[in-house]
Amino acid sequence: MMEAMANTPIFLSRPYLDEEDIQAVVDVLRSGNLVQGDKVLKLEQNINDLTGSKFSSAVSNGTASLHLALLALGIGQGDEVIVPAFSYIATGNAVELTGAKPVFVDVHLETFNIDESKLEAAITSHTKCIMPVHEFGLCANMEVIMAIAAKHKLFVVEDAACAIGASHYGKFAGTFGDFGSFSLHPRKSVTSGEGGILTTQNPALDRKIKTLRNHGIAPDRIPMEFVAAGFNYRLTDFQAALVSSQMRRLQQIFQHKNELVELYNQGLKQNGIVLPSVPDGNVHSWQTFHILCKDEYFRNSLIDHLKSHQIFTNYGAQCIPAMTYYKEKYKYDVAKLFPNSFKAYTCGLALPMSERLTKEEVQAVINRINQFTNDQK
């Protein structure tokens, strides 16, 4: 099997779009109604139906949704927002874009989610919000986070970019805090190419989002009235139609990914690597299957080994305070302050995972990793 697939690339992730998905887009293109319209409304209702959220807003991308959420909560210059030190760079950037300061907290190495035991030590008189990330599709410990937020009267914005369909003790990601922010990037379970979703239970906050995403135009005002300095953060109707079409098979996508995860967990020999774990009470959406290698040299050598066999992997996320912009601005002693985040960044590896990935391809990845780890003994 391994030799038969030797010349066939296995990618980290590739979106799968079937003929119904393509036709859904074609129908919108032929209608001529391309901008935000009925298909966006339908997508927002589909997200509400899936998550149990009262309100959803489709926007141009997942970073825009985080930015809008913070702005709608009034966060800006002089404020602080607590974020995990290990996440995609957009988590920190969204805070910076408001003029507020991201305050980084280390993560658990077992889950790669924010270490809730370190939250209270990071809270100051300037703290206005906690932004937990459901890293790779696994919910953070939201009961504890919400209790801390309530105690200190802080907002909560869930960065659920990877976590559409994930849940924590029966409650869906994106429905715990003031806002939940999802991404529709091609690596996600459903995609619009670029796109995002913002969920909330609060009608006043929902109205703010729908105003800010559309140039500051008050929704449902006739004649049109500009009531804020807003953005063009809209999603098009053909993008929304593409996502709604994929959502009809969302449970099938999750089932397939879980079967691939089971193959990885059963087949990988843990010589120098640690497999991801899922705490009780959680349903993982498995946007990413992220392993932890024993050291950076081992990880980088494994990347090169897999690439030489046409298997493509990548770092799972960044240790944000170690990135050039943040390191130069805030002068963090990253290895001392955020040791787990730095290890997750320097020793972590995302393996191929997508709806399009076959079991045969996963077995080929397993075989090549086991070959490498056996050679390292």
TrEMBL record:
Any Pfam family hit: DegT_DnrJ_EryC1
Iron listed as a keyword: no
Protein known as: DegT/DnrJ/EryC1/StrS family aminotransferase
Xref: InterPro entries: DegT/StrS_aminotransferase, PyrdxlP-dep_Trfase, PyrdxlP-dep_Trfase_major, PyrdxlP-dep_Trfase_small
Recorded GO MF terms: transaminase activity
CDD domains according to UniProt: AHBA_syn
Keywords, ordered alphabetically: Aminotransferase, Pyridoxal phosphate, Transferase
Gene3D superfamilies assigned to the protein according to its UniProt record, in alphabetical order: Aspartate Aminotransferase, domain 1, Type I PLP-dependent aspartate aminotransferase-like (Major domain)
Family: Belongs to the DegT/DnrJ/EryC1 family.
UniProt KW Transferase keyword: yes
